[in-house]
Amino acid sequence: MSSDWAHAPDVVVVGAGVAGLYAGWRLQRAGHQVLVVESARHVGGRAAGMDVPGSPGRPLDLGAMRFTSDHVLVRAMADHLAVPYRQLAATGHADTLFYLRGRRFRAGEIAGDPDRVPYDVGPDARGRTPDELFEDVIARVLDKAGAVVPGTRRDWNRVKEELELGGRPLFEYGFWNTVSDHLDLESYAYLRDGNGYDCNNWSAGEVMQTQLAGFGRAVRYFRFRDGTRSLVHALRRAVEAHGGQVWTGTEVRGVRLPGAGQRIELSLRETGGETREVTAPALVLAVPPRALDLMDLDVPAVDLPSWRQDVESVVSHRVLRVVLGFAEPWWEDVVGRGATRSLTDLPIRQVYYLDDHRVTGGDAVLSVACNDDRAYDFFTPAPAFAHWRRGGALDGPDPHQLARIGQDVIAQLRLLHGTAVPSPTWMVVRDWGHDPFGGGYHGWRPGRRGSHVAARMRRPWPRHDVFVCGSAYSDIPTWMEGALSNTERLVQDHFGLTSPDWLPPATYLGW
Ligand SMILES: Cc1cc2nc3c(=O)[nH]c(=O)nc-3n(C[C@H](O)[C@H](O)[C@H](O)COP(=O)(O)OP(=O)(O)OC[C@H]3O[C@@H](n4cnc5c(N)ncnc54)[C@H](O)[C@@H]3O)c2cc1C
Known about the structure:
By secondary structure, this protein is of the alpha+beta class. Helix content is 32%, strand content 22%. It is built from 17 helices and 26 strands. It has an eight-stranded mixed β-sheet, with helices on both faces. A five-stranded parallel β-sheet has the order 12-2-1-16-26, covered by helices on one side. It starts with 10 loop residues before the first strand and ends in a 16-residue tail after the last helix. The chain binds flavin-adenine dinucleotide.
C-alpha cells in the first residue's frame, strides 16, 4: 500500500539496485521522504539473485557474487546491517587449469616446464602464468613512466589520471596499446587468451587496476552467506524501516524538468500497464547508461551534447552467465579441491567452481562466465533469463535456445577438463546484455577523464536537482563498492549528509 505522500515525495530514486536502495536508505534516514521506483518485480538489479531451481530458499547469485578485502563500504555496511558473509579460501592460483590452443596444462606446471605453454613466447614471458605475465607487464609499463604499481585505490586514481606515457596521459590509451612495446605477438596472444577477459576498449589504467586490485594474487574474497541478495534485501528493509517506500514493477518512462522552483514530473508505468504521475523536488537516477538512454529524459537542449558525451564515456560490457548444478563436484577429480577457476580460449572463456556444496550442502555449482566479446557473440542470441531443472518445466522464452546453450557449454566443459561431464541437475542462463542493463558492467573509454565525468554525472544539470549514481560512473565500475561509494559521495556532496558513523573514518570514496 502506498501512502499519500508517495505521490509527492521529497526525493524519487529510480532503480532499486544497490546504489538506489543505498541512496534511499541514507536520504530517508536523514529526514527526506523517499520513494524508490524499480521496473523489475524484484529489487537488486545486477546484485539480485534467485533460488536454486527446485530448491526454494537456497540462494544463487547471477550477477555480483563476492567482494574483496578492499571493499570497505560493502563490508562495513554488511556489518552494520548484520548481513552474514564469509571469507573464501585463498584462490588456488597454482591449481588453475588452462585449455589453450588445444592443450591442457596447470598454472603450477608452467614455471618448471615452460614448453607446456603452446605459445612461442619471448624470454620475458617464458615460464610465466598469464596472471604473472599481466603483473610483469603492468609493472614494466608503469616503471617506464617512472611509477610503481599502486597499493591503494586512491593511488590508482592518481596514476590513472596523472601518469604520462610518451607525453600523453595514461587514460588516453587503451590497455593493449600500452603493452605493445613490452610484449611480442605470441606473448600478447597468450596473455589475451589466458586472461579470460577481453577489455581492449577500456582505458589502460583501469584495466591495470581491475586486473591487479580485483584479480591479483594477493586479493582475498568474501561472499554473502545467504547470497548477495541478502544485502539487497537488508537495504530494502532499512529504507522501509525508516518510512521510505519501494515500488517494484514500476518503470519510470519519462522525466520532465520544470522551471525554477517547480517539481520534477515523472511518468510511471506499472507491469500491468497502468500509468501514473509522480512529482518531486529532487530526483536520483540510480541506473546504468542503457537505462538512461531508454528513458524519455527532458534534457535541456543546451546541455544535450555534453550530456550525451558524458553518458557515452563508459562502455557497457556484454556478459552472459550460465550456472549449472550437478549432483557431484565431478571437476574435483580433474582440478582438485583447491581450484577456483579455469581459463580457456574456447567461447566459455572462464569457469568458476563454487564451494557452496561444502558449506551449505546441496548441488555442486559451476558458473561459466562468458565475459568477453568473442564469447558473447558465440552464445547469443540468448534469453535475458531462463532456467531449467531435471524433471521440471523449462522457464524461459525459447526452449531451443536454452537447450543449444546447454549443449555447447557441456561440450566445451568436456574439452576443457578432458573428461566426461555428467548431465546437470539444473541450469540457469542470464544475459545481462538485455534492457534495461545493456551490459553486465562498465569500463571507462580511453580518452575520457573519469574524475571530471564522474563529478558531472552526479549532477548533470546544475540548475536542476537531478542526480545520477551507481557503479557505471564510479572509479571502480565493475564492483558494488563503486556503486555504493559513488552514491555516498552524492549524498554528502549534494544533500549535505555527513559520513555515517558505521563507516571507518576517512574511508576513500573514489572520484
Ligand atoms: C555477471 C556479473 C558479475 C558481477 N560480479 C560482481 C562481484 O562479484 N562483485 C561485485 O561487487 N560486483 C559484481 N558485479 C557488478 C555489480 O553487480 C554492479 O556493479 C552493481 O550491482 C551495480 O549496482 P547499481 O545499483 O549501480 O546498478 P543496477 O544493479 O544496474 O541497478 C539499476 C536498477 O535500475 C532499474 N531500472 C532501470 N531502468 C529503470 C526505469 N526506467 N525505471 C525503474 N527502474 C529502472 C533496474 O531494473 C535495476 O534494478 C557483477 C555484475 C555482473 C553482471
